Hints:
The chain has 3 helices and 11 strands. The protein is an alpha+beta fold. It has one domain.
Amino acid sequence: MRPIETEYAGYRFRSRLEARWAVFFDVAEIDFSYEAEGLVIPADIIPGWTRPRFRYLPDFWLPDLGLWVEVKARWTPGEAAKVYNAAAHLSARGEDVLLAPEVFRQPRGGARLPWRLYLDADTLYARPWPDVEDIEPEPIARYSDPAVFQDAPDLLRGFKDDTPAPDWYRDAAREAQRARFEFGETPTR
């Protein structure tokens, strides 16, 4: 299924999922810029899955949080390698990446959280965002052992746990889930 371009908040998003995340950020009062800056990234944490250097255009920049956001509903191993390489590179310079999957279309009561990707020493990790206490981060890739990448968990399902998400997160996610763009409608707050 091809993504459907969608207008919201003065932007023309490449997909409805991106527009839903924009609604989420608005309701949560998180400032964002859409496709703010293109980057050239070295493919060094997961070599061989993409070109040695590639162009990368993150979907969102959250300036107050210092986070790049990559919105993905599905991906190939090569696309995952691009995101993980970008996350390792950006995190090394102090800017983590939020992997924002389709967490809004869950069954009743099935709230899920996106993943924050960050580099610690030589390992790229994923942990739920916003932070959930007592949750061990998942290793995604390691400079010293690129094979870890092939056993990485399916991050596009989002994180689900009995730990409830903060109220602000649930409220923003609920509004993003309710947003309707089918007939040119503009979600209201």
